[in-house]
Amino acid sequence: MAKILVIEDDQLVAELLRDRLKLDQHKVEIAFNGQDALDLALSFHFELLILDLGLPGLGGIEVLKGYRSKGQTSPVLILTGKNQAAEIELGLDAGADDYMTKPYDIRELCARVRALLRRAANSTSNILSCGEITMDTARAEVRVGDNLVKLLQTEYQLLEFFLRHKGRVFSAEELLSSCWDSETEATEGAVRTYITRIRKKIDREGKKSMLQSIYGLGYKLDDVE
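-> structure tokens emitted (225 positions)
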């Protein structure tokens, strides 16, 4: 379950790829040109990018170089045409993690996506924590102290996002962009509802909530005394 940016100028291909990735429970955004792709990739956190190098305007190699030049480390899978060895070499040298040539088998592409996400996850700790909250992302388990906490999918995604950015304040708009699909009609009211639900599940009686509301700014997760 990851947030993925598909960068593909062919709308039909992009939408087919998005729909297939959603079957694996991924959240997928689409960019149809290089400039929009770079703006999205640098404005929001994506756990993986699928990048067609043959883009109009700002090309795929330029998008990749621009992305890496800003210190972004999420894995990138590049897509290129047959017999494009030089282009593949440029892409890998620019920071791509893997490549596939068109036409590709969608099952193989999804398998490569899973492999890249596993590799990225293994490069960091599977255990996220804040105070008494512990999340094991490998097992998708959350505990408060010794107690296992059952979370719905969106609750889990929100809490994981906060744990990965502990102490940082996020507005409701930023949370919607990072934890919901752009196609959903979720509102700031939905964010408040899910924050309340999570608090009910992770808060300890008599203790201040670690999931804090910062008046006029948004929300943050931080340890409390």
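The first helix runs from residue 11 to 23.
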